[in-house]
Sequence to fold (411 residues):
Amino acid sequence: MSFRSVFVAITISGGLLLAALLINHARPPSDTSQPLPELVRATGRCAQCHREETPAVVHQFERSEHSRANITCYDCHQPGDGQESYDHFNFRLAREVTSLNCRGCHRTEYEQFARSRHALPAWAAVSGSSGMSPEHVAFGERHHPGAVDRPPNPLARREGAAATETGCLGCHAIGRPNRDGSIGSCTECHSRHSTSIALAREPRTCGQCHMGPDHAQVEIYTESKHGALYEAQRSSLNMSAEPKRLTTADMPIPTCATCHLSGLDGLRVTHDTTERLSYWLFAPVSERRPGYSRAQAEMQDTCLRCHASSNVEHFYQEAEAVLAATNEYVREGRALIADLRNEGLLTPDPFDEPIEFLYFDFWHYFGRTAKHGAFMGGADFVQWHGNYELLLSLTELKGMAAELRDSRADH
Ligand code: HEC
Ligand code: HEC
Ligand code: HEC
Ligand code: HEC
Ligand code: HEC
Ligand code: HEC
Ligand code: HEC
Ligand code: HEC
Fold:
């Protein structure tokens, strides 16, 4: 070290000491004379400054299981393998904290999450494989053939980067490919510093993304008997129950998490939200998924903790009947559009003519809503937001098709 840098270092540390003394002077004596238990828990050095700089971060952290388990700020913020880092008051911090920083301690959850559609398929639904490394693409395609190695979404392309970044990717970045090679974001459901399972079990948490006319899951849930009971009895539910010991005594009413992730009464907990699904409900025409029987049995195992088998079978029969009827509607609308395209009345671009937007609403809003309503107990969504709208828009599609053909005949 040169004389000059020693001098600079002494001056800086002297300045910091003075600043620290001044800050301490303004703080109550209990804060400065002894380390508060919370301060020790929130890992000393980081919390010392961040109690002033970003106090809410420290308070959130102090309430978490992590704090109780003596996990420190640095456990998450230190750079992992392959992560960019920077200097921060004598600490070396990761430029971005990603699921890589959770993976070391929560490998099982990470692996389940990474193979679900919440991971790379969610990103690819908007951006295609752009932003992914070849390893990402290979990994994703192994679990979801065709859902990862695909082109960017045509609607996202048309709407442009500004709309896509804060709109589509506001929800779909749950599965973003990270530069460090890891996949996705755990904090969408758990948050960064409270890292709570109670939060992840809240229907509102899933409903941040699972809402609106194209996937009205939270609205359907709110309408359902399950949702009504949840509203009325939530204060008596044990939302923080440990996952491996979660029983119907803790939660006699299901939330989204109960049916899609939890291990109720000894069932297996999973972060792969794809495991218990037997149909591609989001598709225009819904086919069975590859693991149809196993998936349905696993979901039904959850229902059967609370319901009799005859009721569950009846429920599925009715839902499958709605699915079959919706598929019929959508097939008819799809054939109509295909015919117009074959006749040269529509350009190949799927989003440049009014009838294409109506067709998109037809299956993407109303068709999906009818199916989702049927599988999650939302009568109004099966009927008024679903089947009625399907009938109306199919009628409108036929009217518009006739006009297109007439206008060509006129020329
Ligand atoms: C000497 C005081 C001090 C210490 C020690 C300290 N920080 Fe900070 N930290 C700050 C200040 C000041 C900021 C800037 C706050 C702002 O922009 O409002 C900051 C910002 C941050 C940011 C946001 C950085 C960014 O650019 O987005 C993170 C993350 C962070 N600190 C984490 C930590 C962690 C983890 C530790 C302990 C390993 C730590 N800090 C220790 C003072 C400190
Ligand atoms: C469970 C892991 C975890 C722990 C423990 C943790 N953090 Fe963080 N922290 C994160 C993540 C994830 C982010 C978001 C980082 C990003 O977007 O790159 C973050 C962001 C931050 C930010 C920026 C917040 C903002 O909104 O601008 C600060 C400051 C910060 N952490 C400080 C701390 C401090 C201080 C502690 C300890 C009291 C701590 N963190 C403990 C995971 C953690
Ligand atoms: C250094 C190891 C470590 C790191 C890093 C870490 N955790 Fe944890 N995590 C733990 C431990 C230990 C527990 C407590 C486990 C227990 O009680 O069984 C825990 C508990 C949890 C819980 C359950 C909380 C509850 O309410 O019961 C969640 C959720 C969680 N971690 C998420 C995360 C996420 C998300 C990240 C990354 C942003 C992360 N963890 C990073 C070690 C870690
Ligand atoms: C940050 C946004 C976001 C949050 C929060 C979120 N999801 Fe999702 N979820 C998505 C996206 C985007 C997809 C579509 C993935 C795809 O492209 O197939 C999805 C898909 C799903 C699927 C279907 C998976 C498949 O194989 O088709 C289920 C089930 C699901 N989520 C359940 C949940 C539950 C339960 C919660 C809360 C515990 C939740 N999600 C929280 C964004 C989110
Ligand atoms: C409010 C959150 C949200 C926004 C904004 C959003 N999506 Fe989604 N998207 C979801 C959820 C949740 C699903 C899963 C629906 C299901 O499985 O029922 C989904 C499903 C999809 C699917 C079908 C699944 C797949 O993998 O093919 C595509 C495609 C898609 N979204 C594309 C987009 C595009 C493009 C945009 C922007 C133009 C967008 N989304 C905006 C939440 C969102
Ligand atoms: C779609 C929302 C969602 C995402 C994303 C998510 N989790 Fe969870 N996580 C949950 C739910 C819900 C539970 C509680 C399950 C239950 O009810 O038993 C949970 C539980 C946990 C637990 C406690 C497990 C146990 O057995 O004690 C840990 C640890 C955890 N998550 C870590 C992670 C990590 C790490 C990631 C990212 C790789 C992640 N989670 C991503 C929703 C999510
Ligand atoms: C009572 C159990 C139950 C509850 C509660 C529940 N779901 Fe579902 N969910 C189901 C069933 C059953 C299906 C259809 C499964 C199949 O395909 O076999 C389903 C389907 C889905 C799908 C459709 C995936 C696709 O193929 O397009 C998503 C997304 C979803 N649920 C998210 C949620 C969200 C978010 C919540 C809470 C707001 C929720 N669910 C509440 C049972 C439930
Ligand atoms: C954690 C327990 C629990 C789980 C899991 C659960 N339910 Fe329920 N469900 C209830 C309760 C409680 C009611 C209200 C019963 C009453 O009216 O007393 C209910 C009501 C219903 C109703 C309305 C009955 C009516 O006549 O109003 C249907 C339908 C239903 N559940 C289907 C399902 C299906 C299908 C599944 C699995 C995909 C499922 N439930 C999972 C607890 C559960």
The pocket of heme C (ligand 5) is lined by residues 121, 125-126, 147, 153, 155-156, 159, 167-168, 170-172, 209-212, 215, 281-282 (CB under 6 Å). Confidence is low (pLDDT under 50) at residues 1-42.
